[in-house]
Amino acid sequence: MELAQVRLLVTDFAACYHFYGEVLGLKPQSGAADGPYEKFSPAVGSAGIALQDRSVMAEVLDELGDTANGHRSLVVLRVDALDAYCEEITMRGATILHGPVSMTDRMRVAHLKDPEGNLVELQEWLLLRG
């Protein structure tokens, strides 16, 4: 078994496409800015985040047509230099809600939301510093 991706069901595809591609700097797979689907990948690693237009999936599963309420996901991205990355994405339009702060003696984190309200946690793994 292999984890292929984490897929977020979104209603404002264009805003989320911009956020994951332009603000966070992830690479889109096909450039389908209008949807209904796009996978984004970081420069390293094999994990990916995909966006799926919620209305398309509602055609498959009726219950997805209901309005999503509350936090239903937390996307976690590891970065090498958390403070510098937070400054960079803030200049590109991100709003940091919390941090950067130490979560444990091994990790620093910052939190923000995408345009749909999905939580994004940025992690800097201090243990990897040697």
From TrEMBL:
Top-rank lineage group of the source organism: Bacteria
Keyword Phosphoprotein attached: no
BP GO terms, sorted: L-methylmalonyl-CoA metabolic process
Chain segments annotated as coiled-coil in the UniProt record: none
Family annotation (InterPro entries): Glyas_Bleomycin-R_OHBP_Dase, Glyas_Fos-R_dOase_dom, MMCE/EMCE_epimerase, VOC_core
Domain VOC residue range list: 2-125
Keyword annotations: Dioxygenase, Metal-binding, Oxidoreductase
Molecular function, one GO term: methylmalonyl-CoA epimerase activity
A Pfam family it matches: Glyoxalase
Record protein name field: Extradiol dioxygenase
Species of origin: Streptomyces swartbergensis
